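Quick illustration for those who missed Monday's session on complexes.
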Amino acid sequence: MKYKEEDHGPHCLECGEPIPYGRSDRKYCSDRCRNRYHNREHRKWQRRYARVIDILMQNHGILSRMLGMGVESVPKSELAQLGYNFDFVTSCRKVRHRLECRCFDICYCDTDSRIIRLTRERFPWDPDE
Ligand SMILES: [Zn+2]
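Prediction with zinc ion bound:
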């Protein structure tokens, strides 16, 4: 974005040009600039959403493999080595002194050094089996 020192008044968020007097939105010089700005922001967020989903899916895959091996308790260091990212879970809540975390349908308690009580729960909207 280029700003010109001598210009006062609002400048276009997309191209940096002064906004023509009388434009009602006062953020963009033209509809073209407004659309370009919004499209780019939209694409940026699409990439961000996709990245988070990738991380969650990788986490879910790791936890699924643990459950498949009959594991209910794993050192966090081991999970981290497998590529587990503890910064992304689908929910986390404190229950008494425990931190209960969920990655889609898999739940566990997060302690200092291990995750414990790894279980799979059905989604509340799925029918009973
Ligand atoms: Zn513009």
